[in-house]
Automatic annotation (TrEMBL):
Keyword line: Cell membrane, Cell projection, Cytoplasm, Guanine-nucleotide releasing factor, Membrane, SH3 domain
Record-annotated PH domain positions: 377-483
Name of the featured protein: Spermatogenesis-associated protein 13 isoform X7
Protein localization: Cell projection, Ruffle membrane; Cytoplasm
Pfam families with a match to the protein in the record: RhoGEF, SH3_1, SOS1_NGEF_PH
Domain DH stretches: 162-346
Region Disordered, residue ranges: 132-160
Length: 574
């Protein structure tokens, strides 16, 4: 806890109010585009939603349920990959039974495999816990009869009430989320901008990303949700259309999620200095924010975009087909899964372009545009023999990216050195499979061959693979390249020019002063296709360890297994 004397080192309480150009004091609450006041006071939110806002409130509620003998389950927001035997590994969407939540960062739980610790920030509690007792009933006759009685008692609520529970959770969490975004913008960003000696503009852009744009967008979204919310009969609320109306707007989360690892790294460096730790804690206290560190607040948008598909899936479960909102909820669920899928794909592409940029820097004699000007993903690579019309053959190493095929030659002495030899525009050619035997156009005997024929000129490229399996892989890769280009076009997949330039700049800095040497282009990762639906895991990120992305959000150390065992054995435990 920061003492008031330390807070005073940065500013007085009066300096929290910003003076507008006309000399007036700016209100702590922001006004929306229509001039209406949308924000809720902290006290109002605490009174209405104590479980979401008050520190430890959710923990108390969970432990009370567990203490009463209830089965408490949570759904994984994203993958938790671990090599630690004391940790519980799971995938996004998995259901975990929570057995103990006495520690705010790590909970003890069970899945189909085992019991172990897992990070609380990686899961979302189910709204309707009552249904779970039915699934966990015993197979023994007497126990089945007893469980059936409990089930009838616990399931006295109608399906309308179940839907009401989910609707209310969506509304309550949305209001609390707006409060958190407001606290970040007014409690942290505003104060940071006033202390130019501590933060540069670039640092603030790295730490906070586009969270102010997200705040503005979410205010409009909540306003529309409130209009569709039926306070008297919540189960009749029709909120599906709100998600469909704003689905394109949710794409702004992609930039924030992509920026988040850099924000964690920048914040981690600053937190090594005491004055920054005191500064951020002073911001939190003076804004009267809940007891969560700044890294926890900055994680909330990442968590939020992952929660929407889970919330809508649960809402769809309790929405009958006769309900007026059924079709919209179903469409909204698909739309938000697509949003999460697009964010994941952009995340993976950003990680990919860094590796591709480093690969280009390692190539000797590169000519023309940077590879990232048109491409963002390596699809396949390998050796092929390129044959000219006159029968001259050249052994080359080829790299197939989206939109282009790059040809390189290996150094005769240093096989790790590659020389640039040219590229083919895949958008302008057509793939032609050739049968083994004599090619009538070129009058050459070929085996394991295929052609790339230009659609606009008479240019033709003939390639031969060493084995039939190699040729099959290249034909498959060329087909994949065309499908991915089409998917990117449909998804609106684009990497900004600034991100491409930054990747090349970082690669050039990293390679400066080093001898040219090919260390291998990154292996083509499995593509996250939009089809089928069951493959669309809501995971952030998809290709690097979670601990790197959530380095600040995930707890540094889990509780000792000894103390968990001790607590379970002690006769004095209530």
């Amino acid at each position: 806890m920061v003492a008031r004397g330390e807070i005073a080192r940065f500013w007085s309480l009066e300096s929290l109010h910003m003076v507008s150009s006309d000399g007036g004091t700016e209100s702590a609450a922001l006004v929306d585009d229509n001039g209406s006041e949308e924000d809720y006071s902290y006290e109002d939110l605490c009174q209405a939603n104590p479980r979401y806002l008050q520190p430890g409130g959710e923990q108390l509620a969970i432990n009370e349920l567990i203490g009463d003998g209830s089965v408490v389950c949570a759904e994984a927001l994203w993958d938790h990959v671990t090599m630690d035997d004391q940790e519980l590994g799971f995938k996004a969407g998995d259901v975990i039974q929570v057995l103990e939540a006495s520690n705010k960062d790590w909970w003890w739980g069970r899945n189909e495999d085992k019991e172990a610790w897992f990070p609380a920030s990686f899961v979302r509690l189910r709204v309707n816990q009552e249904e779970l007792s039915e699934n966990s009933s015993s197979t023994q006759g007497e126990e089945q009869e007893e469980d059936a009685g409990k089930s009838r008692h616990k399931h006295a609520e109608s399906k309308h009430q179940m839907r009401t529970n989910v609707i209310q959770e969506i509304m309550n969490t949305e209001r609390v989320y707006i409060k958190h975004l407001k606290d970040i913008c007014e409690g942290y960003i505003r104060q940071c901008r006033k202390h130019t000696g501590m933060f540069t503009v670039a640092q603030l852009a790295t730490i906070f990303g586009n969270i102010e744009d997200i705040y503005k967008f979410q205010r409009k979204f909540l306003k529309d949700l409130e209009k569709q919310y039926n306070k008297e009969e919540p189960h009749l609320s029709e909120i599906g259309s709100c998600f469909l109306q704003h689905q394109e707007g949710f794409a702004i989360y992609s930039e924030y999620c992509n920026n988040h690892p850099g924000a964690c790294a920048e914040l981690s460096n600053l937190m090594k200095q005491g004055r920054y730790r005191h500064f951020f804690e002073a911001c939190r206290l003076l804004q009267q924010m809940i007891d969560i560190a700044i890294d926890g607040f900055l994680l909330t948008p990442v968590q939020k975009i992952c929660k929407y598909p889970l919330q809508l899936a649960e809402l769809l479960k309790y929405t009958t087909q006769e309900h007026s909102d059924y079709n919209n909820i179903k469409a909204a669920y698909e739309a938000m899964k697509n949003v999460a899928c697009l964010i994941n794909e952009r995340k993976r592409r950003l990680e990919s372009i860094d590796k591709i940029a480093r690969w280009q820097v390692s190539i000797v004699g590169w000519e023309g545009l940077d590879i990232l000007d048109r491409s963002s993903e390596l699809i396949h690579s390998g050796e092929l023999t390129k044959i000219s019309k006159h029968g001259k053959s050249q052994q080359r190493t080829f790299f197939l990216f989206d939109h282009q095929l790059v040809s390189c030659k290996k150094d005769l002495l240093r096989r790790d050195v590659l020389y640039y030899r040219g590229r083919t525009d895949m958008d302008e050619v057509e793939l032609v499979d050739l049968e083994d035997g004599r090619d009538k156009d070129w009058n050459l005997h070929v085996k394991n061959a295929f052609k790339l024929v230009s659609r606009t000129t008479d240019e033709v490229h003939l390639f031969c693979a060493k084995k039939h399996e190699d040729k099959a892989r290249w034909l498959q890769a060329c087909g994949d390249e065309r499908r991915r280009v089409q998917e990117d076009r449909e998804m609106g997949m684009e990497i900004s020019e600034n991100q491409k330039k930054l990747a090349m700049l970082n690669a050039q800095k990293a390679g400066h002063g080093k001898s040219k040497g090919y260390s291998g282009c990154p292996v083509a990762p499995p593509h996250q296709s939009l089809h089928p639906l069951h493959q669309r895991h809501v995971t952030v990120p998809t290709s690097i360890p979670q601990q790197q992305v959530f380095a600040l959000a995930e707890p540094k150390r889990k509780p000792s297994l000894f103390w968990h065992t001790f607590n379970k054995l002690t006769p004095f435990k209530k």
